[in-house]
Amino acid sequence: MSRIASIETFRVPPRWIFVRVTTDDGLTGWGEAIIPKRARAVVAAIEDMAANLKGVDVSRIEDIAQRLRRGAFFRHGPILATAAAGIEQALWDIKGQRAGMPVYEFLGGAVRDHVRAYAWIGGDSPNDIVEHARKRMEEGFTAVKMNATPALGHIGQRNLIDAAAARMGALRDAFGNKLDIALDLHGRVHRAALKPLLAELEQFHPMWIEEATTPENEETLKMLASAARSIPVATGERLSSRWEFKRVLDTGAIDIIQPDVSITGLFELEKIARMAEVYDVAVAPHCPNGPISLAASLQVGFCCPNIVIQEQSLGLHYHAGFAGLPKADLLDYLKDTKPLTTADGVFAINDAAGLGIVLDEEGIVAKQQDWRLPDADWTHPDGTYAEW
């Protein structure tokens, strides 16, 4: 029986929290936690959890996950969820390595040969956004995502709605329907502003609108089904469990859910995807994160038929010296970049053991920093705080 000997955390640029679990017989597995603006709290939570896991049988992944989620009287919340998820991913990595098998083989086996991916694009003007999208298409991507709009107030600000439509219109004028375009609203848009915004965007046939409202606004979520009309509605990146996703799915307003493996954990992501299949809802895992999160997401993507596309963060603007931290990108901490490199806009399946990647452990140790990211400072014109 192999037991947990140590659990360590490494905060590395650009804003990632890696978790390393080592067993008493020398195996090492890696996971990834998120919430960079509360990184120190996440690390503290992992350290608290680690103190209770030393000597525990490393193979009892579900039992460990249950204990991490339910072991304290005050449960849930994103800090505890991501701390548990980072540890749990590493345990799956170890299980796969010990068996010499990829994790997806433990989850029913592969259902596809590749997973489609999309890339982020950005730019302040329509011309900028078109050029960025053109570059992504040259890289082989057939789908992209961009932020749709800055923060909108409850009423007015028609100029911002017109600007959002102009950026989307420029992409359609340049590429027609050859490019699928998702729009991330980031919870920035209030209910009253959603109606005119969606009315303008519908003509451009977005692949989906993402997180049109924050998770606590369930009544607005229910309204979206009619307001979005023909636009598919996506949400879920801030939710951490089947129970939270069930409430969202039961509204009947959602077409695509977007669980993040570094909030849910790997096995919970698989369970959420299977549950969504009952509702005929697609899954597009959220992952603007680092390589371990992406590798863990793909293990689930290879074995769940309703996972339709995977987010990935190569070239994401957050990686370019965010908040003064050194630059780093998705592939920088890998010894072999091939498993997480797309060809023709897809990730090909591979049979490497565990999460399917080999990390540059010496590089991770050398580059770790005690960084802290400032809170967002977004306000409306009148000075009131805005969703960012």
From TrEMBL:
It comes from the Bacteria. The keyword Lyase applies. GO terms for molecular function: galactonate dehydratase activity. Its EC number is 4.2.1.6. It is an enzyme of class 4 (lyase). SMART domains: MR_MLE. Keywords: Lyase, Plasmid. This is Galactonate dehydratase. The gene is dgoD.
